[in-house]
Amino acid sequence: MANDEMMVFDGRWGREFQCVRARLATGLWLKENRTGRTSHHAPPFAVVGSPGFSDGAGEVVGLHLAWSGNHRLLIERLRDGRIQAQAGELFLPGEMVLGPGEAYETPFLYAARSRTGLNGLSDRFHPFVRDRILGGRLKARPRPVHFNTWEAVYFRHDLDELKALADIAADVCAECFVLDDGWFEGRDDDTSSLGDWRADRRKYPDGLSPLIDHVRGLGLEFGLWVEPEMANTRSSLLRAHPDWTLHEEGRSQPLGRGQYVLDLTRPEVADNIFTQLDALLAAHPIDYLKWDMNRDLTHAASGGRPAAHRQMLALYALIDRVRAAHPRVEIESCASGGGRADFEILKRADRIWTSDCNDPIERQTIQRGFSIFFPPEVMGAHVAAAADHTTGRRASLDLRALTALFGHLGIEADVRLFSAGDLAALWTWIGVHKTHRTLLHSGRTVRQTYGDPGAVATMVVDAAGALASLAQLATPVHASPPPLRPVGLDPCGLYRVRLLNPPRPPGRGMKRAPALASGAAVQATGRIIEAIGLPLPILRAGGIAVFHLERLGSTE
After folding, report:
1. By CB atoms within 10 Å of each CB, which of 25, 52, 381, 436 scores lowest?
2. pLDDT of 268-288, one tens digit each?
3. What's the whole-model pTM score?
4. Residue 1, pLDDT above cutoff 50
C-alpha cells in the first residue's frame, strides 16, 4: 500500500496546530515559513503514512525539524513512485555563504515510524522528549499549577488588586503566580517600554518586592513575563541606541505590534539584555520567566547582511546564558501563543504556551494536534473566564477546567468575579489534577477515535490506571450517545471506573441513566471496557465527561 497520505499542520494566531490531510498523487507539496519563529501557520513537523491512517492504525512516519526559525518542508512523489520528505532551515538570499574550510551544521531532523498510527508516533516521541530533549529535568518535581495575571488585569497593575488575586489563587491551591505584561517602566499599553526591564515606580513604588513577598508568603512561587528580544521606540533603550534593531539600511523598517526586533547578533545588544535580566533575577526570588516573542521578523538584516539564522543562534545563546547564570529559574516559550514550538527551543524551555486562545472548544483541537509530538507536561493549558477573551464564546467551568486538566494546568482569569460555586469547582478540579498529576505528566497519551465527528476523546494511561475524556464540541449526531470504547488499557487488568463529573441532577436528559453515567463506580477488565464501552451521560454541545479508571490488579 502506498504511503501517500500527508498530515501537515496549519493554523493562525489563536488556532494553532490544526491537522490538515491530503493525498499526494504526483508532484511536490512544499510549505515555507519566513516569520523568524516556528510560526502559527507552518510549524516544522509533518506525518506521512498509508491512506486512511488514524490514531490507532496505519503505517506512519513522523518528522520534526528541531529549529525555531525559518524553515522549508517538502513532500514529493518521485518519478518511480517513491515518496520523499525533506525539512531544513530556509535561508534568505545570500544568508549562508561558506568560505574555504568553513562548514554549516543543519538542525536535527527527528523521525519516528509507527505501524499503529498516530498514537504509536506519540509512544516514540514523548519518551524521547522527556528523556533526551528535556534531559529528564521535568521529572524532578511536579509541574506547578499556574495563576497568570494577563486576562485578569491586562496592563492595569495595582498592588492591592494583584495581592487579592494572589490570595484567591492560593485559596484554590495554585502553586505559581505569574505576573504578566504591564509591570515594567512606563508600560501602559503595547506601544512603549519593551527593552526597559525595571519595575514601573508609578505602579510599584517600592519595586516588585512587596508583591513577591506577599506571593511567596502565601506559599506560591513567583513568575514574571518578559519579552527580551524586542524593544519599543518609546523606551530608554532605543532612545539611547536607535540602531540596535534588526534592519536594512536605507529601508523603512515596519513596526509589528508597535515594536522592533533587537539585533541580538551584536554582542553589545545581547550583553545589555542579559545584564538587565541577570540583575532582575539576582535581585528577586523569581522562579519562572514567561519568555514571549510577539512579532515576526521583517527585514531581518544586520550589518548589511541577512541575519535570521544568526539571530536564532544568538537567541539560543542568550537563553543558555540566562539558564547557566540562574539554573533554578524555569522558562516558558511563548510567541503570541504557540508561535515558537519545537524540540530545539524545548531544550531550553520547560513549558510551551500552546495558544493565546483559552476557549476550551478551540483548545480541544489545538491540544490534540500539539499532543502528537509534545507530551502533556510541557503543554500550557489555562482555565479562563466563562466568556473567552479571544472568541467571546461562553463555556462551563467544567469544560474549561477539564480541558486544561490534561496539560500543564493554569488559571488565567479575574477570579474575583467567579461565583462561589465556580471557585469551589475550580478548587475541586485543581485537586483532581494534583491527585493524578504523575499519571498525566508521565503516562502514555492515547488519542481515541469516537463515532461522533463533533466530539474529541483522549486518554492518558499508565500501570496504575487512566484518565479518559470525551468533550462534545458540537450538537451530537444522535440523541443517545454511543459509548466511549477506550483503547490502550491492559486487557487483563481489572479497573474500577468512575465518572468524575456526573450530571446534576443524575440522569439529566435520560429516562433511565446507566449507573456509571450517574456517578456510581463499576468494575470491569480492560478487555470488557474496550468491547462494551463506557456509557456516557447525555452531553449537549459544550459538555464533557471525564472518567477515572483505577487499576485494581490483574485477572491473570
Report:
1. 25
2. 999 999 999 999 999 999 999
3. 0.96
4. no
- The residue whose grid cell reads 513549558 is 351
Question: Mean pLDDT for the chain?
Answer: 96
User: What number is the average pLDDT over the span 229-243?
Assistant: 97
Cα four-point dihedral sign 518, 519, 523, 528: positive
Element (H, E) at 19: strand 15-23
Contact 192, 184 (CB under 8 A): no
Instruction: Please tell me which residue in 55, 200, 350, 356 is annotated as part of the active site.
Output: 356
Residues 49-53 have a mean pLDDT of 95
Express each pLDDT in 382-413 by its tens digit: 999 999 999 999 999 999 999 999 999 999 99
**How does DSSP classify residue 50?**
S
CA nearest neighbour of 130 among 329, 467, 334, 379: 379
Q: How far apart are CA 554 and CA 556, in angstroms?
A: 5
Packing angle of the helix pair 267-283, 308-325 (nearest 10 deg): 30
**CA 459 from centroid of its chain's CA atoms:** 18
Phi and psi at residue 476, to the nearest 5°: -60, 150
Residue 106: exposed, middle, or buried by beta-carbon count in 10 A (0-12, 13-18, 19+)?
A: exposed
**Nine-digit cell string for 547:** 472518567
Tell me how far apart the alpha carbons of residues 497 and 550 are, in angstroms, rounded to a whole number.
Answer: 6
How many CA atoms are closer than 13 Å to the CA of 163, on its beta-carbon side?
Answer: 12
Listing DSSP states for 424-489 in one string gives HHHHHHHHHHHHTHHHHHHSEEEEE--S-TTEEEEEEEETTEEEEEEEE-S--SSSSPPPB---SS
Is residue 513 predicted with pLDDT exceeding 80? no
Catalytic residue (choose from 180, 181, 287, 292): 292
Reply yes or no on whether 292 is catalytic: yes
Residue 42: name the closest of 81, 83, 2, 74 by CA.
74
Catalytic status, residue 55: no
- pLDDT tens digits, one per residue of 330-358: 999 999 999 999 999 999 999 999 999 99
Q: Angle, nearest 10°, between helix axes 159-171 and 209-217?
A: 20
What's the mean pLDDT in 198-220? 98
Encode pLDDT of 515-541 as tens digits. 898 889 999 999 999 999 999 999 999
Q: Bridge-partner residues for 493, per DSSP? A: 554
CA distances from 23 to 1, 4, 116 (A): 13, 6, 19
Check residue 175 and report its DSSP letter: -
User: Please, are residues 244 and 259 in contact by the beta-carbon 8 Å criterion?
Assistant: no
